[in-house]
Amino acid sequence: MVMLKGNKVFLRALEPSDIDFLYKLENDTTVWEVSETLSPYSKFVLEEYLANAHRDIYEVKQLRLAINTLKKELIGFIDLFDFDPKNKRAGIGIIILNEANRGKGLGEEALRLLITYGFEHLGLHQVYCNIAESNKPSISLFKKLGFEEIGVKKDWKWTSRGYLNEILYQKIKK
């Protein structure tokens, strides 16, 4: 895969050396609500995942890439999921682990790079995302990139605070 590079970040395939960052991310309970995680992951399970991360998006219907700063610091992951080549759509999601790296345009650039890749190289017609109604920073980010709200799923996510609505956003290629 071509490395996708912007002015602040680049996206790359996952590597076995990402294991410590992946282990930290997947076992950080503060992000479980977003990632839908219910229990901790072992390093063994995550190493198996990384060993298979090279599989083709057409086969596994998902593409996860590492987000790195230009100084080669791994800061998060970005995904295309539920890839549907027949209907030319995919879900898209992003996580930047350290709050200090949020709000600096890094996630925005990573999303722009992956959306462009999806539209231009995978032939997608649309991408969509599901965001908890309470996640104002993500809502702002996706709206800034031209995603439009197309529906609300009532009481969709169970959290420690009770049920939350989830909003479905969509961006159609122009």
Which features characterize this protein?
174 residues, alpha+beta, Aminopeptidase, eight-stranded mixed β-sheet, 6 helices, 8 strands, globular, ribosomal protein, acyltransferase activity, transferring groups other than amino-acyl groups, transferase, Acetyltransferase, ribosomal protein N-acetylase, GNAT_dom
In short:
The chain is α+β, with helices and mostly antiparallel strands.
Class derived from helix and strand content: alpha+beta
**Rg, Å, rounded:** 16 Å
Helix content: 25-40%
CATH-level-2 architecture? 3-Layer(aba) Sandwich
Structure description:
InterPro entries: Acyl_CoA_acyltransferase, GNAT_dom. It comes from Zhouia amylolytica AD3. By secondary structure, the protein is an alpha+beta fold. It has a single domain, classed as Aminopeptidase. Helices cover 28% and strands 36% of the residues. It is built from 6 helices and 8 strands. It has helices at 19-26, 32-35, 43-51, 57-60, 106-120, 136-144; strands spanning 4-5, 9-13, 63-69, 74-84, 89-96, 126-132, 148-159, 162-172. An 8-stranded mixed sheet has the order 1-2-3-4-5-6-8-7. β7 (148-159) and β8 form a beta hairpin. α1 crosses α3 (43-51). The longest helix has 15 residues, at 106-120. It starts with a strand and ends with a strand. The model has no long low-confidence stretch (mean pLDDT 90).
